[in-house]
Amino acid sequence: MSGATAFDPAAVRAQFPLLMRGLDGGPLHYLDNGATSQLPQAVLDAMIRFETTSRANVLRSVHRLAEAATDAYEGARLDIARYLNVPGDEIIFTSGTTSAINLVARSFGEGMQPGDEVVVSLLEHHGNFVPWQMLRDRRGITLKILPVTDEGRIDLSALTRTVTKRTKLIALAHVSNVTGAVTDVAPVVAAARTVGARVLLDGAQRTPHGPLDLPGLGIDFYAFSGHKMFGPTGIGCLWAKKELLASMPPLMGGGEMIRTVTVERTEWADVPHKFEAGTPPIAQAVGLGAAVRWLMQLDWTSASAHEMRLTQRVLDGLGRLKGARVIGPSGLQGRAPVISFELAGAHPHDVCQILDGFGVALRGGHHCAQPLMDHFGVAGTTRASLALYNNDADVDALLTGLDAAAAKLR
Amino acid sequence: MSDDLYQQAIMERAKQPVGAGRLAAPDASVTVDNPLCGDRITLDLKLIDGTIAAVGHQVRGCALCQASASVIASTAVGQKPAAALAGHEVLRGVLGGSEASAPWAALGIFAPVRRHKSRHDCVLLPFEALARALAQAKPA
Ligand SMILES: Cc1ncc(COP(=O)(O)O)c(C=O)c1O
Fold first, then answer.
1. Best label site of B11, B14, B51, B96, fewest CB within 10 Å?
2. What's the whole-number mean pLDDT along residues A323-351?
């Protein structure tokens, strides 16, 4: 990126107060970023600044404080739009990925007819699975499921036999929160275009790893969460093209989403406010805006190389650990720094508990992807998910802890 | 540190659980899930003249869950349902800081779990299954 500063992993880490504080007097090796990432000082500062200098409701009052609040809120929307290379009025604030996808299912989905089809995959997070099952039960649509390969990727070779003239939407994870596989978007878009279907990507695990060009992907909807990309909880976004959003009915009625209300009828506000009924999470939106500004000043070529080098170290370490099996791509090609594995004879929760003793925060379990767990014949996996602030000491602690866990549990 | 959870007493139970495997013709059989972690136990009971004659279990879960199921199988056989159900209370007590009392003294091995709230359900799950199985076995 032009104007980007060089990427210095130690300097980046130093901007995260919680990481520097450590845990109970020892170091913290936070490798649960796929669940929630930590907050840099810049985001905390932006939220405190907003709450102490500009707190007021948005889009309502004309006093100066209210104008400052509206500017901060709408400014955050523009920053997020820049991160994704889209126009600002195509960004809808939601409470996160789950609510963004539910919005599409409830609004866009209500236009579907019995027999219409939605295509998802077996590796979806429940957040991109259950809303479509619910739509199926509400509207009588057919839910079709793309299989996954042995490497834990969505099997795109099944697209041609799965997508039909009745397909209205293909909704897939951009990056799997279990296997770390990055979905190859071009064939999905091509398959959708042949039948006039829309494409939704669940970007929850992609947005923490650098800016995106959504128009270049050729997709129609993109959903993500602030808390996984160094922003606060309670905020996320749905992106869609303006014409598409304009054609969709609002989900909730109330204040801030109307133009005029009479006793007889209501005229909706324009996109995006049509979809933002009620007082939004303003400080959280401001925090997410600060997070993407912080992300955009980094050199992502170097940051990605750093994340991938650590990922390779974890994969190598697991390769040497007896009884360990990676559930996901074995190499770095088409892979994000999310690494799931099974340790023969050891339950993921026991592994995580022992690793906690080494100051290593991991996640074990089904990762809200039970259909995928069933496919691989496991109750759950242990997952290390890395962020740009992780370092070699984090990987060392992980591998040392796993040796100890293997010795203890087997 | 959480290492204290994986002491010998628990790990021995977990690695060689008493009662592992299904019963051939159980009088009651229940499957209970922990929706948070995906752990699952199937517990079979055989009763003869109102006394627990055999316990079998199949656990897809962590070491704590395995060990807990093992304690049930080694303690509940020969007990009346009421005495077996009392084990649930003894275990809750242990997780709350009390001593384990006979005939459920073996539950004392779970004292280190007390400090790990997120793991309480792991040890309690088999007892929930036991309670449900006993309710199912109750003659109508
Ligand atoms: C791929 C994916 N989709 C959806 C979600 C749900 O995100 P949220 O809970 O922030 O709505 C997650 C996070 O857990 C995820 O990893």
1. B96
2. 96
Q: What does the pLDDT look like over A208-266, one tens digit per residue?
A: 999 999 999 999 999 999 999 999 999 999 999 999 999 999 999 888 888 888 888 88
Query: Does A280 lie in the same domain as A194?
Result: yes
Residues A142 and A261 grouped into a single domain: yes
Count of residues making up chain A: 410
Determine the Cα–Cα distance for residues A9 and A2; give it in Å rounded to an integer.
19
> Which chain B residues are Cβ-neighbours of A380 within 8 angstroms?
37-38
User: Model pTM?
Assistant: 0.92
Q: Quick one: pLDDT at residue A5?
A: 58
Residue A242 domain-assigned (yes or no): yes
**Rounded to whole angstroms, how far apart are CA atoms A188 and A203?**
15
Q: Name which CATH class applies to B3-137.
A: alpha beta
Q: Is the pLDDT of residue B3 over 60?
A: no
Does B38 contact A at CB distance below 8 Å? yes
Cα A267 to Cα B28: distance, rounded to the nearest angstrom: 60
Mutational test site, ligand 1, from A36, A367, A368, max ligand atoms within 8 Å of CB: A368
Angle value at C-alpha A285, between A280 and A287, nearest 5 degrees: 145
Instruction: Sort out which chain B residues have CB atoms less than 8 A from A373's CB and list them.
Output: 38
Please give the number of the atom of ligand 1 that sits closest to the Cα of A173: 1
Tell the residue nearest (CA) to atom 15 of ligand 1: A204
Quote the ipTM score.
0.85
Which residues make Cβ contacts (< 8 Å) with residue B78, sequence separation at least 6? Answer: B51, B52
Contact of A370 with chain B, judged by CB distance below 8 Å, is answered with: yes
Burial readout A304-317 (b: 16 or more C-beta within 10 A, e: otherwise): bebbbebbebbbeb
* A36 in any annotated domain: no
Confidence of residue A125 (pLDDT cuts 50, 70, 90): very high
Catalytic annotation present for A352: no
Position of tokens 């449900």? B132
Q: Which residue of A has its CA nearest to B41?
A: A379
A362 touches A395 (CB < 8 A): no
User: How many domains does one find in chain A?
Assistant: 2
Domain harbouring A319, CATH code:
3.90.1150.10
Token pair, residue B84, equals 């077996």
Cα–Cα distance between A151 and A182 in angstroms, integer? 11
> Residue A3 has what pLDDT?
45
